[in-house]
Design a protein that fits this description.
546 residues; alpha+beta; DNA ligase i, domain 1; OB fold (Dihydrolipoamide Acetyltransferase, E2P); 3 domains; 39% helix; globular; binds adenosine-5'-triphosphate
Amino acid sequence: MARWAEFAATLDAVSRTPSKREKVTLLAAYLRRLPEDALRVACTYLTGRVLPPGDPDKLQIGWSTLVEVLQELSGATDREVSELYLRWGDLGDAAAELVARRRTVPLFREPLTLEATHAQLRRAAAVRGKGAAEFRAAVLRALLEQAQPMEAKYLVRVLTGDLRIGLKEGLLQEAVAEAFSARPAAVRRADLLCSDLAEVACQARRGELAASSLRYFRPFRFMLAGTLADPAEPFRGGSQEVLAEDKYDGVRVQVHRLGDRVTLYSRTLDDVTDSFPELRQPLLQLGPAYIADGELVAWAGQQPAPFQRLQQRLRRLDPLEVAEQVPVVLFLFDLLRVEGQDLVDLPLVERRQRLESLGFSGPVRLANARPVRDVASLREAFQAARERGNEGLVVKRLDAPYRPGRRGGLWLKWKEPLATLDVVVVGAEYGHGKRAGWLSDYTFAVRDGDRLRVVGKAYSGLQDAEIAQLTEFFLRHTVRDFGHFKAVEPKVVLEVAFDAVTRSDRHDSGYALRFPRIVRVRADKTPQEASTLEEVEALYRQQRQG
Ligand code: ATP
């Protein structure tokens, strides 16, 4: 069994050294010593998750449960907790202090281990229905009763999904490589194919990285598109043929089908199958064993419906009821595995041929695409895609492999030039008039390295149901309550449109968006994927030149 105390001490040592090299070495030495079960747990936690990607369970221990349990154990008041939080800027550090003040200490203290702690958290994630929230709180309480302050600090950080040790994905991969004397490139590749560092670490230890491949029901990250600067770009350097594919405005999904199982994964690698029951049958009919990539759109008659309608499908508790009101169509544009064969390294033109040979039916359709050889035909294709009610095109190189998790020139997106930014909500305020009871005005920020910088405030262009849902969410994720205004955990990403970027002293970013309007809630994006201050600066410079 692996002691939690050693895990915590290692993370602490890693967080204290500023040297990336040393961080990697410290972590590698630790991982090397772990037995397999503990290695899996440690690697999953290191990536900021409690459960591996694609796991059907979700551990719903949020901020409010953590604070409640910490208060129960320490007797601290709301005010004390909020002061501690502000002093440290981190709930993990606050937890260490609160646990040190525990009122009762158990008679027998069992040292916490990674394996046993994880088994408890797994049980908590699996409970459903009535009493589930109480059960989760009880599990947390039992763990924090046993934990030493330093252990509590990292337990809480694991639960809030941010270890704060300065180890991003690339360095974690390096540490795994170093721990098991594997090539960093081999670890990177395996990690891209399965997006599960725990699995990769076990493969590395067994020397099996070379055999790593896509696996059914292990979602991996999507290939993304760069932005097309001008329509001539794909043809530079000699004429070449590219695929002009309609750019659908919906949500991205990865479909895994094997045996009688069909699973849909979102861009955040969550299982969203249950929201779309009507797709099951046509996806079973498509082929016996495959992994495919596509975009799911809300549908109205012969045309795509606005993206917002799709949110209703993702939210509803009774998916069948809303399926009739908001039909969807799934447009598949890529095929990555068929039966036992990975297709990711094949050129797009071959993957597309294989895709076209599948048994499409009903709401599962083939994405509209055609090869083009020159700028004029590309423009025509763009116009035609717009006329079909789509956003524009994704222009794809026909010779390109599928690169999981990569964004680059192999795929280029072309949509109308209206600038939008994906921002993170950091504060919420009650609205006025009709919106008086709702947290409907949002202060939002962009990323600046590890920090968030405020760039504006907008009151909502969202639908009432969305505002109600966000209100409930923000009340549960309030970090500091100023009454009318609440500072909230940075979790919700919004896409905002605006007229201009201006210089401003009002916000700590030094910029403000003029007339920001909320276009949509980006439930499919994490705060780490939000826009950056550099993008804001670039937009500011661009408009001055323009
Ligand atoms: P990104 O996905 O590049 O981070 P974003 O989420 O803001 O950016 P857009 O810039 O509008 O979205 O466009 C990219 C998205 O378009 C893809 O992530 C994908 O979900 C969607 N998409 C729609 N049709 C296609 C297609 N034919 N090929 C690839 N992606 C497509």
